[in-house]
Amino acid sequence: MKAIALTRYLPIENPESLIDIELDRPSPAGHDVLVAIKAIAVNPVDVKVRAPKDAVEKSPRVLGWDAAGVVHAVGPDVSRFKVGDRVFYAGDITRPGSNSEFQLVDERIVGNMPQSLSFEQAAALPLTAITAWEALFDRLKVPVGSGTPAKSILIIGGAGGVGSIAIQLAVKVAGLSVIATASRPESEKWVRELGAQHVINHFGDLPAQLKERGFDHVDYVLILNDTDRHFPAAAAAVAPQGMICTIVENAAPLDVSLLKAKSAGFVWEFMFTRSMFQTADMQEQGNLLDKVAGLIDDKTIVSTLSQVLSPINAANLRQAHATLETGRVIGKIVLKDF
């Protein structure tokens, strides 16, 4: 089968950073489904894993954590899917990724693809939708359905992949008042179209900008870029007994004592936790993807696809990685068709 892989961790400008190869097609066992991949998306995790370092792989390593495709074969313990089903998923960071014609993935972290979407539109969703859903509803414990009065959330990095889904879920599913950050006219337009009622600039003074818009504090803060830089502002902005969640690792220790007087909470979201540790509730990822598919099909939320490259090959994947490395991507970049 065709695949794109690496053996060395090189700058993306190097043509050897991602290469076209041929691999044997794997066979499913246990709870695995074998998916014939039709489209893949690129995420910051791809860039971070591929980033230059001295390590050398003994065998080619296939990256990729977003895919949509068709079930080609199933393992003996599979009960949720059958051959021919259209599916989407983000996969497991401890296993070979989706940058290949066929991929094995545990059925418990797979969802039924939205019926109203193309493969490329569906491939833009899984990793960001899982991350946003878990951050809001599992980590921050945001209740589903609007309250009176509506609670508020500050989403730092609203125009990226996760932010684009988080805004929609926060507004349409949770009924929150959403303040998103954006720093360019095109990204501000994007987040407003997705439902953000207020927009502030993450390069400015966040608490001061919130106050200018009538928010002394916010009930929730979701940090989607540069935790080190934004944590002090998040701690100042969060309400007493509020909650902060981040998806971005920190480089230096965070001063969580800033939260003590407010009895405020701080929590991490890492969407690979359930698959990495085979948690008892691992099936919840498949369940939430099915819920997201329903929200897409009833037009509550929309796919955040912003760019499509074709075919799926090393040259186009390197281009997608390079674009993502600029830090100025709005929505999601997808590749389709081998």
UniProtKB/TrEMBL annotation:
Q: To which species is this protein native?
A: Collimonas arenae
What high-level taxonomic lineage is stated for the organism? Bacteria, Pseudomonadati, Pseudomonadota, Betaproteobacteria, Burkholderiales
Q: Where is the Enoyl reductase (ER) domain?
A: 13-335
Its keywords, alphabetically, are: Metal-binding, NADP, Oxidoreductase, Zinc
Which GO MF terms does the UniProt record name? oxidoreductase activity; zinc ion binding
Transferase among the record's keywords? no
Name this protein carries in UniProt: Zinc-type alcohol dehydrogenase-like protein
Family per similarity comment: Belongs to the zinc-containing alcohol dehydrogenase family. Quinone oxidoreductase subfamily.
- Which SMART domains does the record match to this protein? PKS_ER (SM00829)
The record's NCBIfam families line, in alphabetical order, gives: adh_fam_1
One Pfam family name from the record? ADH_zinc_N
Looking up InterPro entries in the UniProt record yields: ADH-like_C, ADH-like_N, ADH_Zn_typ-1, ER, GroES-like_sf, NAD(P)-bd_dom_sf, Zinc-ADH_QOR/CCCR
